[in-house]
Amino acid sequence: MSDIIQLLPDAVANQIAAGEVVQRPASAVKELIENAIDAGADKIQLIVKDAGKSLIQVIDNGCGMSVTDARLCFERHATSKLRKAEDLFAIRTMGFRGEAMASIAAIAHVELKTRRHEDELGTCIMIEGSEIINQEPTATPAGTSICVKNLFFNTPARRNFLKSNPVEMRHIIEEFQRIALAHPKIFFSLHSDGNEVFHLPSEGLKQRIIHIFGSNYNQRLVPVEESTTIINLNGFIGKPEYAKKTRGEQYFFVNNRFIKDPYLNHAVLNAYEEILPSENYPLYVLFIEIDPAQIDVNVHPTKTEIKYQDERSIYAIIRSAVKRSLGKYNITPTLDFNQETGFSHMISHKKTEDIVPPTISFNPQFNPFDTGSQQKERQDNYSRSFEKKSGIPQNWETLYEITQKAHHQQLSIDSEDKQQESAIEKTQEKPAGKLIFQIHNRFILSQIRSGFILIDQQAAHERILFERFLQQLETHQGASQQSLFPQTVDLSVADFELITDLLPDIHALGFQIRAFGRNTFIVEGIPADLGSGLSESQVLEQLLEAYKNNQSTLKLTKRENLARSLARNAAIKSGTALNIDEMNDIIDKLFACSTPNVSLSGKPIIITFTLKELLEKFEK
């Protein structure tokens, strides 16, 4: 029997390796920009078309490459960052494995132009599927320009699994933002389909955060700084009142490398304990400087996970530093035991000379033994003079006329109450003669023939609105409430791309919004079902937050996610008092739904209590 094990060709091996390194266009963007940073560039441009499917181009002014290096960089495990195994424990660069360029070249058409600053001519290399098509000298600016065209052209299965252009573009923006936050001293720009999305000059970290997320973040940031023998921590955290329902704006960087670490994330959330509402997540952009010998970054293909030698100490340092910053800038509540605030409202703030002492008035002519007309005349004269002095209105005696009425006249009040109660009972009765009550402003109790039912009013209203919004998305007949004064909403680049993708469905729900300049929308109307509790900008921002939160936790279609997000924001909340008509309306519309018994979260909306169960409770 002949041997069956053989070495794979380099092209096949590179395609297999590309499955781990390059998962989508955003992965290629990350690898190319990190290489530009390692080359010492202080100006990096990113150009994409069709969300990176047609073109990804990175232009930098770094050190450039020689002819030999330009050819060798496309070989597997060819790197300029490592020489021996010990170098893995002293890594300061973004890349070190030497797999990215070979993996990208195996699944795309790549054109490389590079020139060192000391050379007069550069090098141009064209590769298709790991095969070099052309190599020649060329005139090019100092630095490197890499064009990646037709990504996954020879792996159609991978290309078919890519999402829509807006979704892939959001992933590219996410990777771009992470790198731009980690290197605020480098100029970055991003162009998508001919439009400039980002233009980030060299600046400080706070200005970089504001330029990426929006000018309204200027008042939301609290600085954090801590220096210890283990780590140096610096960056910014967000104020608790600006926390969101999604985890999107949370960034940890270790030696300027973005990482995902639930353990360290818990340290930050623990510092916000008792000052942050449940299921809310604060903004933070924190940088950890640590000795590379104390960590291992070679534990994940995307290099977003790190192993530490002393995790507990790092956890404690981060928690205490964040908590100290919250207290230092008066974010957390404080107690002053030197002042009793219970009597502070009783202290007068008037000047001493403005305070008038109280006076006592009496009638010197009063004679308790004089019951004649003279005594009555003297009392009337005194009362009139006292009214003029004290400002008491005339005819004040009529206030006591009710006490002079006959007893049977007061009983008529009870009879009126009985009439009102009977009228209320008539309005409470449904067509079948059932009574409806509200319990603790949370549940609706309705009598049925076999007992009674309890309805969760918030879950019921969410179900009603969800099915209504789904129908509006299908028929494009959502009712809109026109705004008297249209509002301008400034969004981050990622949120702007998300709304642009959802715009047709948002219009179908009844929103009237239109683009107004860069990353800005004008809201001219909102769905009529939302009421007037929130402003137009708040409604839109909450809709986006709920949509992103559902997107990360649930596998829903775009329309289901949108309808669910809007229904949750628009539904009446627990604790809202309802009148009889409102309760009747909820019950009627709930039983008209296709699935009235199950809430959007999969929990029951209606619980039935039978008479038999009640009798068993009373042991009858």
UniProtKB/TrEMBL annotation:
CDD domains, A to Z: HATPase_MutL-MLH-PMS-like (cd16926), MutL_Trans (cd00782)
Where does the DNA mismatch repair protein S5 domain lie? 209-327
Q: Where is the MutL C-terminal dimerisation domain?
A: 435-578
* Basic and acidic residues composition-biased segments: 375-389
Indicate yes or no for the key word Nuclease: yes
Task: Please list where the region (Disordered) is annotated.
Answer: 366-389
One Pfam family assigned to this protein is MutL_C
Highest taxon of source:
Bacteria
Q: Which PANTHER family does its entry note? A: DNA MISMATCH REPAIR PROTEIN MLH, PMS, MUTL, DNA MISMATCH REPAIR PROTEIN MLH1
> What is stated as this protein's family in its record?
Belongs to the DNA mismatch repair MutL/HexB family.
Name of the protein described by the UniProt record: DNA mismatch repair protein MutL
